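User: Assemble these into one structure.

Assistant: Restating your components, then the assembled model:
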Amino acid sequence: GQQLNQSPQSMFIQEGEDVSMNCTSSSIFNTWLWYKQEPGEGPVLLIALYKAGELTSNGRLTAQFGITRKDSFLNISASIPSDVGIYFCAGQLRMNTGFQKLVFGTGTRLLVSP
Amino acid sequence: NAGVTQTPKFQVLKTGQSMTLQCAQDMNHNSMYWYRQDPGMGLRLIYYSASEGTTDKGEVPNGYNVSRLNKREFSLRLESAAPSQTSVYFCASSEYGTADQPQHFGDGTRLSIL
């Protein structure tokens, strides 16, 4: 099945460092989403991007929707231990029927050392 | 503020047994989805319901059936469980309309098939 190319697969950083991860696709999407998943829980929406070139922040998180609509990045500044988890990008495409097809990246596992 | 609620949270089955995974949302969303998540992979769509009264196959529907019981509830049934169906299952919901709306996820059902 179709999946987005997400990198890096994993990161192990020191508390206070900045983090950057990105997703690329051969397909164009209407919306890019970034989710975080913690152990034993479902993905939680962090940021949604609706327009090509859009740059959006949510606290220490910043994400951008690529101009070509085929890529996106997520930055986390000044990481803290509670940032630990798996981060997923997802491209969303709304079909004519109203169905919103969501294609996920393979995830970036983030570990933060205090 | 429940959002999307899944039951049960954990289940162990023997090969050949059947069971139904339940999902309910309280956000008045029209569209609902079932995904499975396997190690090292993003979420893959099993079935979806764009609106009450409709269901359609996703990326990996074989071995599953679904029922959209009403606007709030969307169940996933395994008629004859197989070890390959050992996975974490997530239900999600979203708005239906002209604007792109992100999907919101439950906390998952962890299913093991022996």
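Chain A has a mean pLDDT of 91.
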